[in-house]
Each structure stands twice: as structure tokens, then as C-alpha cells.
Amino acid sequence: MAAGDWSVIIAAALLAYLCGSIPFGLIFSRLGGHGDIRDIGSGNIGATNVLRTGSKQLALATLICDMLKGFFPVLVAWRFGADAATAAAMGAILGHIFPVWLGFKGGKGVATAAGVLLAYAWPVGIASVLAWIVMALVFRYSSLAAVTAAVVAPLCAWLARPDGVAPLAVLAIALLIIWRHRSNLSRLIHGEEDKIALRKS
After folding, report:
1. Domain locations along the chain
2. What is the four-CA torsion angle of 62, 24, 168, 132, rounded to 10 degrees?
3. pTM
4. pLDDT tens digits, 119-139
């Protein structure tokens, strides 16, 4: 691979990382007068925890922006080839989970992964999003829905084999999501996991 190709790949990964590291949940919760979202509920910066403030609007804004910060870097990177898109996909996810602005302690990456996959391999993204929606509606556990979607993603990538998409990259994203939910899975097994709440308690 030429030096120029490597520079594009590195730039794609770095820019996607910086986009992915924008903590929209933290920003919106503060703008909405709810303080530091990390002091609320699970302490996570994602949309599910923002919903625990009682503001559906802020939660929805967080969800959309977290998806878009994964979607757009990958979409732009595709213009420079499949390798750049793969690098951007990984960069955006790592940015959300390990944001430089928050001491590398970020969210669990579900919404950002959805945006990434919709841009990187849209059939995989759609299948994963549908899996999340179905599981969330039926069982109302965000963590269970996230892990199910994470399992579905690499299976779909391996079966569909979209052009230019690296199934191993999709698998890496899925494993990151599952790893970030390890404490949730433990609580789920012990019957201690909170369900998705639609109104403030």
C-alpha cells in the first residue's frame, strides 16, 4: 500500500475518532438544565441514560446525534475507498467509547454503532437496528436489545458480504458493544437490570 493510501486511512480514522468522541448526551443534559449526565442513573452518556432525566426530547436529540456522528464520517470516508471507510468505522466507535475529552471514559456505543453500520454496510445496519427495536419493544431492556443487535451484525455481514465491507471489522465493533455491556449482562442475569423507562420516576 502506498504512503498516500496510509495517510488517507489514518486521517479517516483520526477524524472519525474526533467526531465519535463528541459527548452529545453530556452536552444536551447540561444545556437542558440537568447537570452532568454522568451523575444520573447508570452514569452513561448515551440516550438511554439521558431518558432518565425525564426529557424525551433530549434523549431523542442524543440518539440522533450519536447516530449521525458515526454515520457521516464513514459516509465521507467511502469516497476514499473501502479501507478508509473501515478505518472511519472503527475510529468513530472508539471515539464514542473512549473519548479524549472525557478521560477516555465514554458511552457504550450502541447508537454510534448503528450510524456507523448504516453508512458502512446498510443491510447490516438495518438488520441490527430492527433487532434492537424488536428486542427493546418485547423485553424493554436496552442492554439485551444492544447485545442482540451486536450478535446480529457480524452474522449479517458474513452472510450478506456487502462489497468492500470487512466482516472482521463488523465483528470487532460487535465485540466492543458486548464488552461494554458486560456489567449490564451481569445485572440482567441476576434480575437487577433496569428496564427502559418512558417517564420520569
Report:
1. 3-100+109-189
2. -20
3. 0.93
4. 999 999 999 999 999 999 999
